[in-house]
Amino acid sequence: MHKKIIKSLLLVIPLFLISTQAFAYILYSGGYNSYVIKFQNSNLNSYYSSALADAVSSWNGTATKAAISEDSTSANLVYGGNWATTWYGQYSGSSHNSSGQATQFDIRINAERIFQDVVNGITIVYTPRSTFTHEFGHALHLDDLSSGSAVMNTNRTRETIYNPLYDDINGVNAYW
Ligand SMILES: [Zn+2]
C-alpha cells in the first residue's frame, strides 16, 4: 500500500517539473537567420501600420538582442489581406540555410479573421498588435504554444496579451 503511494508520487513529481519547463517556450528552427531583422511594410493601412510599429517597439524594448526595423528595400515583407481561414497572422520563412534558418520571410495579417472578431462583438484594439508581436516571435525562433501567459500562446486573449512576456523573452535569450 505505502509502496504504491510512494511510487506514484515519484512518478508525478518529475513529470510535473518537466511539463512546467516545456511549456514556458518552445524554440523554432525556421526563424530568421539574425536577430537584426529588417522588413518592408508592403501594403498596410495606417491602422495596421501603427499596430506593426507598436509590436516592433515592444520587441526592441525587451532585454533581448532583438533589433527590428523597417527598411523599404528589405526582401522581408509584412502585408495584409483577406483570407477565408481561422488564422490571424502567419510567418512564412524561405530560402533556408544549412542550419534551417530562413534567410527571407513574409508576415501576413488576416483582416478577414480580425473582422470576424468585430462581428462577434470582440474589441480589436490590441489584436493586430498582438498578432504582429506573435509573428515576429516566430522570426525570432519561438514556436507556438497552446497555453500559458505568453504572446506565443495561440489561445491567448489578444486584447490583454500583446507584448512579449517573461517566457517569450526567455525563449529568445535561449536561442540568441
Ligand atoms: Zn504562430
Structure, described:
By secondary structure, this protein is of the alpha/beta class. It has a single domain, classed as Collagenase (Catalytic Domain). Helices cover about 40% and strands about 20% of the residues. It has five helices and five strands, in the order H-E-H-E-E-E-E-H-H-H. A five-stranded mixed β-sheet has the order 2-1-3-5-4. Helix 2 crosses helix 4. The protein is globular. It starts with a helix and ends with a helix. Bound molecules: zinc ion. Zinc ion (ZN) binds next to helix 4. Zinc ion binds next to helix 4.
Key terms:
single chain; 176 residues; alpha/beta; Collagenase (Catalytic Domain); binds zinc ion
What is the CATH third-level topology name?
A: Collagenase (Catalytic Domain)
Unreliable stretches (pLDDT < 50, length at least 5) are none
Order of helices and strands: HEHEEEEHHH
| Average predicted local confidence, pLDDT | 91
* CA radius of gyration: 18 Å
Overall structural domain count:
1
The name of the CATH superfamily reads Collagenase (Catalytic Domain)
Percentage of helical residues? Answer: 25-40%
CATH architecture call: 3-Layer(aba) Sandwich
Strand numbers in spatial order across the main sheet: 2-1-3-5-4
Number of helices: 5
Give the number of DSSP strands. 5
Unique bound compounds: zinc ion
